[in-house]
From TrEMBL:
Origin superkingdom: Bacteria
Residues holding a divalent metal cation 1: H63, D101, H216, E220
Upper taxonomic lineage: Bacteria, Pseudomonadati, Pseudomonadota, Betaproteobacteria, Nitrosomonadales
Family matches, as NCBIfam families: YbgI_SA1388
Family of this protein: Belongs to the GTP cyclohydrolase I type 2/NIF3 family.
InterPro entries listed in its UniProt record: DUF34/NIF3 (IPR002678), DUF34/NIF3_sf (IPR036069)
Coiled coil: none
Leader sequence residues: none
The protein, known as: GTP cyclohydrolase 1 type 2 homolog
Pfam families the record matches: DUF34_NIF3
Alphabetical UniProt keywords: Hydrolase, Metal-binding
Gene Ontology MF: a single term: metal ion binding
Any one of the GO CC terms: cytoplasm
Subunit structure of this chain's protein: Homohexamer.
Amino acid sequence: MHQKALEDYLNTILEVTRFRDYCPNGLQVEGRTQIQTIVTGVTASQALIAHAIELRADAIIVHHGYFWRGEDACLRGIKRQRIAALIKHDINLYAYHLPLDAHIALGNNAQLAKKLNIAIEGSFGEQAIALHGSFETPTTLRELNTNLTQLLTRQPLIIGDPSKSIRRIAWCSGAAQHTFEEAISLEVDAYLTGEISEQSVHTARETGVAFISAGHHATERYGIQALGEHIAKQFDLCHYFIDVENPV
Ligand SMILES: [Zn+2]
C-alpha cells in the first residue's frame, strides 16, 4: 500500500487530532512510497531499526518515536545514527504516542484490560487516557502479583498489603504515576501504571490504595502489537512485532 494511505488510515482510526501530545503523531521519517512489510515495537531504538533492516521492512510503527517536546532539535549523536539508518535503508517511521494509549480497542490501556480480564467502566485523568473498572473475579493483591508476573512476563513492584482484596482498579500505561491521586478519588482498591516515584510509596501507604508499578515497557507492548496485527489483516501486509527487552 502507499505510504500516505497508511498514514491517513492510522491518523483516522487513532483520532490524532483529538490529542495535545509531546511529539508529532504520524509519519515522522519518510522512506519508500510502497509498503508491504511492517515492523512494530515500543520504541524506535537502534536495536529495533536493526531488526527492521534485517527483515527488509518498508515501515516501522512505534509508540515512542522521535522529536519530543523540549529535546535538542539537532540531528546529532544517537538521534543522527538512528535517522541516518532509516534514511539509508529507505524505511518509513510512523509514531503514535497518546492516541495509541487511548484507543478504545487497540490502545495500550484497552489491551491491558483485555489481558488482565478487567471490565472497563470509564476513563479519567489527563485527556481521559487512564481507565478504571472492575475485575470479573475479585482477587487479592498477592494473587494479582502472581497473575501480573505471568501475564506481563515481568515482576511488578507492588506497594500494599498482599492480603488486600482487589475489586476496583484504575490503570494507565507508561509513566503515569502522577495520576495516582486522581485514581484514589475514584475509590479504587489499586492503581496500576508502568513506573513509580518515591512519593507514590507514601501515598499508597497512607491512603491504603495499592500502587502497582508493572513496567513502562511491559505495559506498552500490547497497543502497538494490536495495531500492527489490525493493519496487517486490513491491508494484507506482512507484520513482525519485535519486543526489544527493557527492564524498566
Ligand atoms: Zn511510554
